Amino acid sequence: MRHGGRYYSSMKSMGYDLYDNREKRRLPLSFPTREEAERFCEQKNSEQLFDLAY
After folding, report:
1. Is residue 30 within 8 Å of residue 17, measured between CB atoms?
2. What DSSP designation does 2 have?
3. For 16, left (φ over 0), alpha (ψ -120 to 50), or beta?
4. pLDDT at 42
5. Are 31 and 16 in contact (CB under 8 A)?
6. SS3 category, 15
7. Residues whose CB is less than 8 angstroms from the CB of residue 15 and which lie 6 or more positions away in sequence, other chains included
8. Pairing between β-strand 16-20 and β-strand 25-31 as defined by DSSP bridges
9. Percent helix / strand / coil, the chain, rounded to 5
10. Which domain of life is it from (predicted)?
């Protein structure tokens, strides 16, 4: 039988990174809050849809 413990970091999150599912790569952007990251994603997604439409 193996006894082990779990490690929980006491460090705070450094922010939210974005991942491009099409390109399969992490974007070089980081946002301090989830709301800012979501807002950026919504803006980029709407821009891409606009570009595809025209």
Report:
1. yes
2. -
3. beta
4. 93
5. yes
6. coil
7. 30, 31, 32, 33, 37
8. antiparallel
9. 35, 20, 40
10. Bacteria
Is 35 in contact with 29 (CB distance < 8 Å)?
Answer: no
Tell me the three-class secondary structure of the chain, residue by residue. CCCCCCCCCCCCCCCEEEEECCCCEEEEEEECCHHHHHHHHHHHHHHHHHHHHC
Q: What is the pLDDT of residue 11?
A: 61
Q: What is the pLDDT of residues 1-47, one digit of tens each?
A: 556 666 555 666 678 888 888 889 998 889 999 999 999 999 988 98
Q: Which two tokens stand for residue 1?
A: 């039988």
Residue with tokens 């490690």: 7
- Cα radius of gyration (the chain): 18
